[in-house]
Amino acid sequence: MFHLQWEDVEFETKGGLIRVRVSDTFVSKDREGRRIPLHSRLRDILLSFKKKRRVHDGLVFPSMRGTPVDSSNALRELLIAAERADIDSRCNWNTLRHTFASWLTMKGVSVHKIARFLGHSSVSTTKRHYAGLVPEILHTDIERLGTVVSEGTKLHARRILREDAA
User: Among 39-43, 95-99, 139-143, which stretch is predicted with the lowest mean pLDDT?
Assistant: First the structure.
C-alpha cells in the first residue's frame, strides 16, 4: 500500500483492479506479482481521491515529501484510528489482512480465491489459517448435498416406477 502507484490502479478494467508488482522498493509476501479486484466502493473512493488531488501518476499515498509513507508513521495513524473505533490496541496491518481473509472465508468465498488475494503460494497455508472459521458454512454446503441426493432419489424412484408399470 505504501508503494502503490497510480499506474497500478486499473480503473478501466471491469470493476477495477490493483496490480501488485515486485520492484526494488517493494517485495510482496509471496515475492510474485498479482492482480487484485477492487470493491466498487473502494474504486469510487480512489477515483474521487485522484480527481481531487489532480494527480495522474506517482504514489497513490505519498508522504508530505512525496516519498512512500514510512510504515511506522502509518502504523501510528492506524492505531489512532483503531482507538477511535474502539478496536483492540494490538491492531496492525496484518490484523487488517487477517480480517479481510476471515470475512471472505465466513462469506463462503473459495479458499483458492482467498489464497490468490493474499498471495499465498499454497492453498494449504490459507486452509490452515482460515478453515476453522467456517463450520456452519461447511454444514450448509453438506445440506446442499441433501438437495441433490433428494432430487436424485426422486428421479431414481420415478424410473423404477415407470419400469414396474411397463
Answer: 139-143
